[in-house]
Structure formats: C-alpha cells, structure tokens
Amino acid sequence: MDRIDAMKVFVAALDEGSLAGAARRLKRSPTAVSRALAFLETHVGVELLHRTTRTLKLSEAGERYAVACRRVLIDLEEADMLAVGERTAPRGMLTISAPPISGEEVLRPILDDFLDLHPTVSAQLLFLDRQVNLVDEGVDIALRVGHLPDSSLISTRVGGDVRHVVVASPRYLASHPHIKEPTDLAKHQIVAFTHLGLDRWNFTPAKGSSIPRTVKFTPRCIVNTVRAATASVVAGNGLTRLYSYQVAEYVRDGRLQVVLADAEYPPMPVHLLTPHGRMSVPKIRAFFDFAVPRLRTEFARMAAICTHGR
User: In which element (H, E) is residue 96 found?
Assistant: First the structure.
C-alpha cells in the first residue's frame, strides 16, 4: 500500500472524527480505511489511534505523527501546484479558519462568492474562538484579529479599525445614570463576556496620567458567546463589552449605542494569514486576490458605524 495514500486516510479520519466519516469523504469502504490505518501503524511500529465504535483518540505518538503527516501532504500539494505552473486554475479543498462572528457574517459571504467564481474549489470554513496552528492543523488561511507575534506566517492586512466597545440599548441608557467616565460603570449592570473580562475592564489613562484605568465590577450576568451578550443588552439588561465588528449592525440599526469611545485603546489590525510558501498555490493566491479588497471594504464600513453611528 502507498504510504502517502495511507497518510491521507489518517488525516481524513482525524478531520472527520471517525473512520466512517473518512470513508465517506474519500469515497472508500470502511474496510479500506481500516486497512490503510493498520498499514500505517505497522509501518511506523506504534499505535497511532485509540479506536472505539464512536470515537478516535490520538496516541502520544499519533499526535506527533499527525503534525508530520499534515506538513508532508501540504508540501506535496504545493509541489504539484508548482509543477503545473502558476496559471493553473484554482482547484482542491481550501481550509479557512476565522473567529465565529467575523467568519459567519463577514468572511462567509465573500467565500460563497469566491466558490461561485471557481467551481473546481471546495472549502471548509472553521469558526474557532482560538488561534489555530495553521501548519499543524492543516489550515490554509486564517482570519485573525489583533497584533501578530513574529512568525514565519505570511500576513496581509485587511483592516485596522477593530476596537473594544462598551454598548447598551438606548432604552437602558435612558433609564440609568449617565456614563461620562469609566468609573461611572460602577452604577450599572454588566453583562460580562468571558473572553473580554469577567470582573474588570481596562481603559486608557486619564488625561495627564500614565496609569491605565481599571474598572472592577460584579457582573449581573456572564455569557460565553457574542450572540448571547448582544441579545442580553439589546433586551435592556445592562452593558457589555465586545469587538466593534461584532456589534456594528446593532449600532447601525439603533438597537445598541456605544459609550466611552474616547476611553478605549487604539484599534487593532485584522490580517489574513497563510503558511510561508503557500501563496504560490493557485487556490490560495486566488482567494487572497479576491477576498482582501472585499474584507478591507467591509471592516472599514463596520468601523465607521461604531465611530460615527452610520
């Protein structure tokens, strides 16, 4: 049996979470999938997967081997693409990761249009509230909000105006004490979003000071999704703090209002990332060319809404 083919089966089983899922994805019989995995384990001399009827779990050796397999398969795909030339039409599976809200509402429509334009490309869009390791996890492209650490990843900036914003419904603000300074939040109900501060929020130093202002609070409610936080404050249950792009449409239609904008830290950038050397792959190059100008337009539009209310 071909070892590269067995590696593809191994990675497909991990991605799908089961042997049956790998069989469906690869259009093979479950027996053929099991045979390929058995061949691979015999070849390396260790158990790679702990298998039950419902789940797959990597062994310690399997975790290391999975990382190596993904790198090998990515390098092979890139070599094939380079061999046939850069003018080859984009084709194959494109795997993209993004934060849930920007991925669902900003990136997904752009990806839909891209797929319409390129019928030989298919896509897997992963909505994750964490930073993925693109190489180890077999991800071609990631949309990432925030400042980037030094790395070997190739990055293209698609936005520079994402910031934290504190928001509440106009109805709530009209019936509670006026908010002029961060310390005024002590008089208010807080809906805390787990990723942006459970019991305190930081703001820029006051004029003439170099010490950041920290506001401590006991939240009225704690939620772990953006949609729950926005729904709660739209209903008038207090204030919450989120990223500007996550609430832009609510601000645009008047359901939420931004407070303390002058006390927030400078905006953060947004980038599209891909592993080093992958920009020469036609499907990745084509997606960057297609998506970057559209993402820049959309993030600029949402920034303007949260800054000017329109």
Answer: strand 92-98
The residues, ordered by sequence, that sit 6+ positions from 228 with a Cβ below 8 Å of its Cβ are none
Q: Look at residue 92 and give its three-state secondary structure.
A: strand
Contact 37, 13 (CB under 8 A): yes
Residues 175, 178, 182: CA angle, nearest 5 degrees = 130
Per the DSSP assignment, residues forming a β-bridge with 270 are: 145, 159
Instruction: Name residue, tokens 């407070």.
Output: 259
| 58-107 pLDDT tens trace | 888 888 888 888 878 877 876 776 666 545 678 888 999 998 888 888 89
Is residue 131 exposed (0-12), middle (13-18) or buried (19+ Cβ within 10 Å)? middle
pLDDT digits (tens, 9 = 90+) for 138-172: 889 999 888 877 677 888 999 877 889 999 999 99
Cα 29 to Cα 8, 9, 36, 255: the distances in Å are 15, 12, 11, 52
Whole-angstrom distance, CA of residue 4 vs CA of residue 9: 9
CA angle 2, 126, 6 (to 5 degrees): 10
What phi and psi, each to the nearest 5 degrees, are found at residue 57?
-135, 130
Angle at 144 between CA 143 and CA 149, to 5 degrees: 135
Closest to 233 in 3D by CA, of 207, 248, 255, 253: 255
1 Cβ partners below 8 Å, 6+ apart? 35, 36, 39
Retrieve residue 200's tokens.
């305190």
